[in-house]
Structures are given as structure tokens and as C-alpha cells.
Amino acid sequence: MDLMTMKKTFYLAEIAAFMLALTGCNKDDIEPTPEMEIPDIIFDTDLGNSTDDVFAMQALFAYQDAGYCRVKGVMQSRKLEKAKLLIDQFMHYYNADNVPLGLVEGEQQFFEMIPYYQLADSIKQDGKPLFEPTGIPLSNRLPAWKLYRKLLSEADDNSISIVCVGMFTNLGLLVSSSADEYSTLSGKELIKKKVKRLDLMGGCFSPIPLRYTEAGKPKMLEAEYNISGDIPLAQKVINDWPTEIHLFPLEEGLNFPSVHDEILAQYASKPNSPIYQIYSRYNEWAKGDVGQYLWDVITMFHTILGEDYFDCSPTGNISVNDKGKTEFTAVPNGNAHIISMNITCDYFIWKALDYIANYKL
Ligand SMILES: [Ca+2]
Fold first, then answer.
1. Domains plus CATH for the chain?
2. CA–centroid distance, residue 297 to ligand 1 (Å)
3. Which DSSP letter does residue 103 get?
4. How close is the Cα of 18 to the center of ligand 1, in Å?
5. Cα of 226 from ligand 1 centre, angstroms
6. 49 C-alpha vs ligand 1 centroid, how far in Å?
7. N or C terminus: which one in the chain shows less Cβ crowding within 10 Å?
8. What's the 57 CA to ligand 1 centre distance in angstroms?
9. Digit-coded pLDDT (tens) for 70-91
10. Given the DSSP bridges, would you call strands 336-341 and 310-312 parallel, antiparallel or unpaired?
11. Gap from CA of 165 to ligand 1 centroid (Å)
């Protein structure tokens, strides 16, 4: 039993005991009701490399089918042709052909951990694609920042929840945008008028030792992946976003590893699902232990299922330096909160992960 599995087992035992002392703290108690606020969500993802984006996508559509949210659009933020093809295929898998999909523009710097975007050209034994596309050519898709402007211009005021679990490229270009055929408002004005909330996965506010070392010396993480992939536009979003930001940082997801064998077992009854297909070839693609955790899907749970299950820092400001290092300063008139989890939240996350694993298509 590895350390994370031991930790998880400990947590489950501790949480089970904890829950016996509580009543009314159960995901099943928050079935959608007429009084419940149902978020209109735009999902922004760098799907194609880290696996947690796919769990987040599965959660998005599972909870939409159960009536917890409405998906208004999906934005893609990994600047690779195959990643664009794969997300189109996954949209078809999740019966989301009619959901608008925007594609990233701009420049990025990123490294690869599990390049499962290669699934885009996988074929089955019968010669058909492993995942069928929607049939909408990529050339017919709008750039993501442009699609943001279109969707926001069509939305009711203060109605859109954005959950971004990849690089901030699309959001940075949106913030920087000017009046166009969709709206006379600037990007900042449009966001201020139409966006209800922004949930970001990104940043790191604690010293985190990397698994990789140089010359045998421990190396500390300097910049979290979503920030380091596009530092200029991450700075743009953090500095100029005109509404409140909720940010789920790297260190908060480290209690939630996605363990290869456990995921394959959990999704064994769904061998054709994106998650099973990715994990069935995980060891072929991942060079060693690349450290996959469930950051993105936890951020999605925060957006869809509300803040009651999470702790939230006092109001403050975030800064991003030119190397991508993030810092948080608590100030009363700031626009940011750091999300964290307590033991009740941990229990809720494990239950929600089981719930989406049982999503039937
Ligand atoms: Ca991601």
C-alpha cells in the first residue's frame, strides 16, 4: 500500500466515524430543488494531458443530466491540433454535439505528462474511430475568447459561472478584448455585467517538493502548471479580472490522487469511456510517476455543488510574478479567495467521485 493509498484509507475510516456523528451532511441530501440555484456554466479546459480534466468533464455532464447545472459552452485551451480533435470527440461521447466549443489561440509553454491527446487518432478493430467526432469541422469553431464574447453577450446579466481548469489563455484574451460584432462592451465590461463567478484551478501558495530532482537535489515547485503555461495571460487575468475570483490551488488537491489501478477498477464496467481508455494506456504514455491528482474535478464540484462543502479564505489579492510564482495577501477590498477543504469536504468529494463514476450514458 503506497503512502497516498494509506492516507486515503485513513481518511475514509476517519470520515466514516466522523459522519456517524453527523446527520444531514450527505450529497444525497442536496438533490436539485426548485429553490436551488442551478448554475449556467462555461467550462474552460486544457484537456489532452493531465487526466483530471476528463473527470471534470464527466462531472459536468453527469451533473447536468441530473439537473444540477446547465452547460452553456466548453472552451479548449491546449494549443495542439490533436487536443482540439479529441475534445470534439469527447463532446460527442457526452452527447454534447450542440454545446458550443471554442478553440484556443495564443502562445503557450507547457510540458507533457500523459499525452493522451493521441487518442484522437485511435481506431477500433473494425477500422472506425475509437471516439467518433461531432462532425463539426474545427475550422467552423470560433476562437475561445471570441466564443466567450458571443455567449456572454447572449446571457442574462450576472448569470454565468466560469470554471477554468487549464491555462488562463482564453480568459486572458477575453479580458483584453475590445468591442466587436457581439457586444459594444470591452472584455472587462462584458465580464463585469454577465459573469456571476469565476472558479480557477491554479497557483500554489505552499512550498511543494517536486518528485523530480536535478543532480540528486530536491527541487521545489516554482510555478503551478496552469500559471506557468501562459504567465503573461495568467497575470492579465489575476490583475484585471473585474469580478470575484475563487481559486483552488495545487496543494489542496494532493489528498486526492487518481491511482491508476483504482481508476481502472472503478470504471471497469465502462471500457469505452474516455476515462477507462486513457487509464488503460496510462503506463504506455506516462514516463514514470507523473503525479496525477484530481484538482480539476474538485474545482468543478465547487462550482456546481456550491461552497458549503469547502472552506474559503478571507478576501485578498493574488499576485503572479514573471516566473509564475503566486502569492496571496489578505486585504478587505481584494477580489480573490483561496478555496480549501476540511474533513467534511473530503467525505463529500469521495462520494461525488463515486457518483460520477456511476454516470450512465
Ligand atoms: Ca487541467
1. 3-356 (3.90.245.10)
2. 9
3. B
4. 32
5. 7
6. 8
7. N
8. 10
9. 999 999 999 999 999 999 999 9
10. antiparallel
11. 5
Cα 305 to ligand 1 centre (Å) = 19
Q: Are 113 and 290 within 8 A, CB to CB?
A: yes
* CB 119, CB 88: distance < 8 Å: no
pTM of the model: 0.90
**102: which residues sit within 8 A by CB, 6+ positions away?**
73, 74, 75, 76, 141, 142, 143, 144, 145, 146, 147, 148, 170
Cα separation of 336 and 238, whole Å?
Answer: 9
Q: Which residues sit with Cβ closer than 5 angstroms to ligand 1, an ion?
A: 46, 50, 53, 165-166, 296
Rg of the chain on CA atoms, in Å: 20
214 CA from centroid of ligand 1 (Å): 25
What are the percentages of helix, strand and coil residues in the chain, rounded to 5? 40, 20, 40
Residues 6+ apart with CB under 8 A from 267: 273, 275, 276, 279, 357
Assigned C-alpha cell, 83:
487536443
269-318 pLDDT, tens digit per residue, is 999 999 999 999 988 888 766 678 999 999 999 999 877 889 999 999 99
Cα dist. 17→13, 75, 246, 346 in Å? 6, 41, 30, 13
Spacing, Cα 179 to ligand 1 middle (Å)? 29
